[in-house]
Amino acid sequence: MTLIIKATKHLKNMGKIKILIVIIVSITFQNTLTAETWDEPWQKEIIQKAEYFILGQVVQVDSLGVHVQVLQNFGEKGLSNKILINGFSILNLGSSSGQGIRFTFKESQNLYFLLTKRQDGNYAIPTPTSGFALLDKENNVYATYRHSYHQALIPKDIYELTYRAIWNYYKELDYNKNRILKFINEQIDKKPAGFDENEISTFFLQHASLETAYLLDIPIKLDRIKKFAKSNNFHSRVSAVQLMSLLDDKETKEFLFDYILSDANENFDKVIAIRSLKKIGKTVYRAKLMKIMHKLSDEDTGFGGNLMDPRIGTRFPSPREAVTEKI
Predict the structure, then answer these.
(1) Do the beta carbons of residue 32 and residue 102 sit within 8 Å?
(2) DSSP state of 89
(3) Cα distance between residue 183 and residue 201, in whole Å
(4) What's the DSSP call for residue 136?
(5) Cβ 319 vs Cβ 261: under 8 Å
(6) pLDDT class for 231, splitting at 50, 70, 90?
(7) Which of these, 60, 59, 4, lies nearest to 28 by C-alpha position?
(8) Spatial distance between the Cα atoms of 159 and 143, rounded to a whole number of angstroms
(9) 58 C-beta neighbours (distance < 10 Å), count
(10) Is the pLDDT confidence value at 23 over 50?
(11) What are the tens digits of pLDDT across the range 28-58?
(12) Sign, CA torsion 76/77/83/84
């Protein structure tokens, strides 16, 4: 249902040697969501607007919606017994065939849901592709920290450690800061990982740590995260330059400015770097960005992915547009 950064196993026919390979999988909605497209919200907005955070099991999917048995509540506000999910809270359609949108969950799936309550007394997820995280049979979670286009496979205990903290932070509740800092520091102090067989698990954890630090507004010094911004891993670069939006020092501002000018970096991470620099650079660096705007690409590359993916309507500017966008 989403674009997933995923590790999978391949067995050789003769020796049956297990080789861990990394693939990018785009599972589209061609059968159920034929012509509907929408602008997918970022995870930070989803968490901020959600009212309930639960773990639930899908009991039934029918014409009424998704019937869910509540297994666990997180935070102060809780739900009990069975609930019905029958709508979407942040669904901004770009196009529609008039056929409507159906839920694609399956019976017996266990999922973490970020929910809001509807006027009819039932519940909504943000869009058909966001506001939930699948818990698989191996106790791993298909977790979203940044955007549903960018997911990572995270152990259940790490997901709950980070998401309890993130949820409590945005709901103005206490969380275990020492445990979170320990996790973040352990991952950030390692060498940036890639998608190789022996690195993929570390990459997922580093992704979770960098994104968690950003969501919790925990500043990490430039010298510690610069290596991620310079790595060959697109996702690590994006996480790092995004996290730099929490640093208000000249060295970081100059680093971001040079990053934006460099031909070695991609349009997507340049846009994130521009947004970070505009946030911390204020008038001085906004003026500097305006002066070099003509040197920046006007190509709107966006998230990429399959053209049949309904999230194709997600708006993402070119670097040149990002200079003047309101944030």
Answers:
(1) yes
(2) S
(3) 14
(4) -
(5) no
(6) very high
(7) 4
(8) 7
(9) 18
(10) no
(11) 333 344 478 999 999 999 999 999 999 999 9
(12) negative
Which residues, 6 or more positions from 11, have their beta carbon under 8 angstroms from its beta carbon? 17, 18
Pairwise CA distance, residues 123 & 87, whole Å: 7
* Of 113 and 75, more confident: 113
Mean pLDDT of 251-259: 98
pTM of the model: 0.89
In terms of Cα–Cα distance, which of 262, 266, 260 is closest to 244? 260
Asked if 12 and 19 touch (Cβ cutoff 8 Å), the reply is yes
Please give the pLDDT value at position 90.
96
% the chain with pLDDT above 70: 89
The string over 220-230, giving b where at least 16 C-beta atoms fall within 10 Å of a residue's C-beta and e elsewhere, is bebeebbebbe
The per-residue DSSP string of 236-276 comes to: HHHHHHHHGGG--SHHHHHHHHHHHH-TTS-HHHHHHHHHH
